[in-house]
């Protein structure tokens, strides 16, 4: 008898038709634009000025990036899972959960422990589930928090299972903001048990917070210089037989060895240590990777992922299941585009119809075998050359291919010693870790690069986007963190672009064309800074000096430029409205894109170029997860927080002031010289930039709160603007 499918894949035909029609029309208009520009350059006398040529080059680069972006929309699909059709619990494979934290000051231990507890409480057989926490800071606070979490879990997990809770992150469950209606009809037994567990949670929370307050300053230095620490949580209370008998997943604390003289490879290095340590303890064939603030919101996510991994039709080539990153602290307007709507609703769904979405750092179920490569034909000597000289770990690699998962939870001295050896900073020397095995080291965006190489090897991935978010995390809620994080991401992306693994060279012969175009788009994304800087300065300076850049309004060619602008805007609006967002979302996304282009994309690209010439080293700063009350208040009111570094704010404010001057001067020229036919395009460009960035103008001129643009930054930007105006006047009238 033929078994029922575990999942269904449905192509979004209507979306594909709309997307392809738009792409064809827009491409036709771009061809017309290029014809107009080239004709003007080759046939006009006198020859066009340098600003004209630079604007044309900017339009060409924007068009190339746009063309690669269309690959995401070519074949969008949606997927449905049927977890009820999975085999019995005894037949399900094991899952190891990897959670990474790096700095207890920026990533509060209580929040990290809530993520740990939510992972332990997944709706999955306890004897098939293991949770590993990597603490790259080597903090005694985090270790103590793990011990407390283990003790609290002995009460929390039975409570979750007994009453079938759907919200299994205790911090969220007990929050007054949550609807705690998971219990069966609010029975008296449920309410009484809930109050008992709540009391234990408050005690747990108090102990973890108190430990954080008492920690000394010596950990600031020890976080980069400490020995490996591996601890399996296995203390059992003796006074409560009911709790003692509760089935518990394995919980392991791992702090790898770090020395200033050894490169630790950031998050990728931490994940590879977890791969090795878990390999000799549980060796589960599947791995869930989570950021420390990304708690399990839907306890059924593991079963949903298994609907794909256990499908014999797609499983042989399937590497990972990617769930979207969603966030619990996004306000109604999402002023910082924190939910990354374009990425997780449009782009990853589109890639799912080709070869699968990119690896996205957190919220994915990875097949362990995919990270080890095809080693089934290699002997023990070759395995040691690849994986290092741990016999226990080599045995675990063999068992992945031959016997399936093993379970080795003995907390013996020998096992502890072997685990510490695997977590040492010298273990990877003269091996293929980070080069061909595990998570790869060539970029600080290890997720993007590892996923890229897996796809180049012919592996596939799946995007699973259920109606209830599988995981919820914390997004950045201030401008400084947003742009610093964006700088790091774009540094990593451009780092890969400048290497031998550039998608256009390395990926073209190894992946489908559309998949290569998708990776190519992200490879070129940092270069948005070039056309954005040009289009935010050159037409404006030319306008003030009476030099037209765009066709006259009375010319038929003006319609080509108008169509391209309006078509892009309407397509963006269609995408926004189709995903349930508002017009305000469109303005926010356009504003953040402009801000990122002139700051994060600029600095990220420059950093990557400097690193390419050996003038800069890669760095990784964890995003700050601690928000003060004033910052939260500004965010909830929908006001941008300009408490940021001068280096980040100055480019934004300078361009806003320049466009204000350009707009006022352009309007005056239109009325005084009656040149509106020649200058309307440039005046409108400045007006559009100012309209989209009105909150920046408000922060600069109207607001009086602490989140306003600092006066020194405004004055510095004004001085730079005057310099640009003077330079433009001298150059364009020379």
From TrEMBL:
SUPFAM superfamilies: Nucleotide-diphospho-sugar transferases. Mn(2+) binds at residues 267, 291. The keyword Cytoplasm does not apply. Pfam families: Cellulose_synt. Coiled coil: none annotated. Keywords: Cell wall biogenesis/degradation, Glycosyltransferase, Membrane, Transferase, Transmembrane, Transmembrane helix. GO terms for molecular function: cellulose synthase (UDP-forming) activity. The keyword Cell wall biogenesis/degradation applies. One of its GO terms (cellular component) is membrane. The active site is at residues 136, 447. It is a multi-pass membrane protein. InterPro entries: Cellulose_synth, Nucleotide-diphossugar_trans. UDP-alpha-D-glucose binds at residues 106-107, 136. GO terms for biological process: cell wall organization; cellulose biosynthetic process. The chain crosses the membrane at residues 550-570, 647-668, 680-701, 713-732. It is found in: Endomembrane system. PANTHER family: X-BOX TRANSCRIPTION FACTOR-RELATED (PTHR13301). This is CELLULOSE SYNTHASE A CATALYTIC SUBUNIT 7 [UDP-FORMING]-LIKE. It comes from Salix koriyanagi.
